[in-house]
Amino acid sequence: MRRHGWGGRLPSTDDEAVERIVATARELIVERPDVPPSISEVAERLSITRQTVYRYVPSASALLAGAVQLGVDDFLDAVSSHLRGITDPAGAIAELIAFAHEELRRRPDLGLLLSTGGTSPTDFTSEVAMSLNRAMLDQLDVDWSAYESIDLDELTEVVLRWLLSFVFSPGERPRTTQEIRVFVRRWLGPALAAGAPGDHTDPVPTPRRRRRTTTTRRIPS
Asked: Could you give the percent of the chain with pLDDT greater than 90?
């Protein structure tokens, strides 16, 4: 194994080993952008054991994050440039989700990072995905310190769940980018406005009683 593993050329340092493992994962993403690379696949391609990969990379999530990191940096720069000057939280979040939606459809590797974190298709709030989404919020020109009642951790999760639902579960008639902007502003905007400076109202609306009606509802057959 020592003679044939690593393509016959052993890494001289731990950093070199990590770089080669991550580069191999990147190759797999380029070849198959809709499927996250696995530890086993990387090990097989490098002719090393899975245990050797785990010695340098702690998890599949970390492997995926490393493989798309350069793309992530470019993506965050694009977010910052596109949303520069938007200081209103509702407008910024609506534009962020709309812009990110377009980019994720164009960039399958980023979609993998956000939707799976290298674990499962339902792990929408993985540590990797949450970190990237929080980084997107940090690119905004919104002065979040002025909105003390807005919990940024919860907002990060809400934005992530909404964004991924638009990308991976668009419905029978997917919304256009402009429709996404309008939808987000309509339903998320009031919650963000409730946290505006000087607004001390209860952000949770009081449920209104429904008037009773004699109309009979039919049960679908």
From this structure: 47
> Of how many residues is the chain composed?
221
Q: Tokens representing 214?
A: 């004699």
Q: In this structure, are residues 118 and 92 in contact, taking their beta carbons and an 8 Å threshold?
A: no
Contact 107, 71 (CB under 8 A): yes
pTM of the entire predicted model: 0.68
For 160-210, the pLDDT digits (tens) are: 889 888 988 888 999 999 999 999 999 999 988 887 675 444 444 444 444
Residue type, 221: S
Distant-in-sequence, close-in-space partners of 140: CB < 8 Å, separation ≥ 6 = 83, 86, 92, 96
- Assign residue 118 a region (left: φ > 0; alpha: ψ between -120 and 50; beta: otherwise): left
Rounded to the nearest 10°, the torsion over CA 178, 181, 187, 189 is -150
Tell which residue, 17, 164, 148, has the closest CA to residue 105.
Answer: 164
| The two three-digit tokens of residue 136, written as one number | 């997107």
Q: Which residue has 């004699």 as its token pair?
A: 214
Q: For 50-77, how does the pLDDT look when each residue is reduced to its tens digit (9 = 90+)?
A: 999 999 999 988 898 888 886 788 889 9
